[in-house]
Write a structure and sequence with these properties.
This protein is mainly alpha-helical. It contains 22 helices and 3 strands. It has helices at 5-17, 68-88, 96-106, 112-131, 139-160, 164-180, 182-185, 189-203, 215-220, 222-246, 248-263, 272-289, 294-307, 313-330, 338-351, 355-371, 378-387, 396-410, 420-430, 438-454, 456-464, 468-478, and strands spanning 22-26, 47-50, 61-67. It has a 3-stranded antiparallel beta sheet. Helix 4 (112-131) runs parallel beside helix 6 (164-180). It is globular, with a radius of gyration of 28 Å.
Amino acid sequence: MAPHLNTIVKLMIDSLQSTEGVVAHFKEDENEMLQVFGEDDGELDEEEDISIEEEDEEEDIEGYSVENAYLEEKEDTCNALGEIAYNSSLAFLPHIDECFSEIMELIEYPASNIRKAALCCMGTICRVLSRAQNAVDNGGEVFAKALEKVIPCFINIINTDSERTVVMAALETINEMLKEGSSSMVSEQSHVSSITSAIRNVLQLKTACQDEDDEDDYDEDPQQAEHDEMLIEYAGEIIPSLAKAMGGQAFGPYLAGALPLLVMKTKKTCTVAEKSFSIGTLSEIVIAMEDSIQPFAGHLVQVFVQGMQEEDPEVRSNAVFGIGVLAEHGKETLFTHYPVILSVISDLIGKEDDQCVIDNICGAVARLVLTNTEAVPVAQVLPRLVQLLPLKEDQEENNTVFKCIHHLYGSGHEAIPSLIPQLLAVFAQVLGTTQIKEETQGLIIQIIQSIHNQSPDEFNRLLTALPQDLAVRLSAAVCGSS
């Protein structure tokens, strides 16, 4: 596509700059003007009017209208330009300057759908510049200068724009930029401070779009309520991305400010959506913070244990996952909490009927064992764990559980020998499938080969008790293939 970019980009810039379809309305033409791009109206009529009041405007002009088709063209152009930039990557760099200035102007366009498209396109352009940091001369400097303009612009949109979908687009775009150009985005203290401040504003319902309507309007519009929930979720998703980009230790002080706002949304009086979001976000923060989460572990364990006893299965599932990763990264700081955690898990597994929750219980138990084997009654829990394998809904946790089994097998734990027949049957079910990662498959093959080498006759006897297809998989694993 590179040879054709000059022509394509020129046509797109022309489209962005075009005023075609904009018609001036004079006072004698109409007695009434429609208010266009109203704060409560995200839809575009067939022809819409823009009231403009400027001192230097001719006195006989009442306002302007823009035909719907031309607005859609600008929106489509922004979207297409972002796609082309992202997929052309470094080949798009010669066109960055002219596109950057044009898109920046559209971020304040009256129509919300165009503002939203411009934000997404600008984020994509920044992601292209991020790739160029080490690929071209002065790439890092160019990206840093772009961020100096873009970050304040995005933060202003989050705080002041009255359209929820536009603010959501700004939040989502910041998150995507963090993931791709993370180190540069957090190298400036001002960027981090402004982003975390904006997140707090959203979580505290202090932005313009959250303060627009009174509670009666909120209750009467389910879509608006859904958008408000999504808005908070989009803001929350940035927190673990920031933690990962900055490193847990550096992010600690910022987490101290955000943590109370998230914990507030786990209270009994909160909605199921709020509890699920906040507990899920806290779990992702634990993963991003790694060992640096330890100063916060004592407080978080209470939140997760409470969540494990909630009525909603999604909340329970998120809480069980959270307690597992907290044990993994909290290490010694959680050892004194093991009795309470294991007691709650024991009560839960006895009556749980939601498969996703069950899968996450298995993952949590595996993490507890991996972190502190002596603190878990392995002989009691392992047989039940093996019965539940392979996991059915949250198959990602298969990798954690099999890693735990590999750990116990390697340490010669007394609970393993009696479970070998069941384990071989489970291993055969997951080998060569997408249920496990390649690394996990390697661990399983190690166990299978070890069992065979220690007792070939017994191994072959166990194979005869399995369906042929499963026996073939185990035999292939012994030979070093899968």
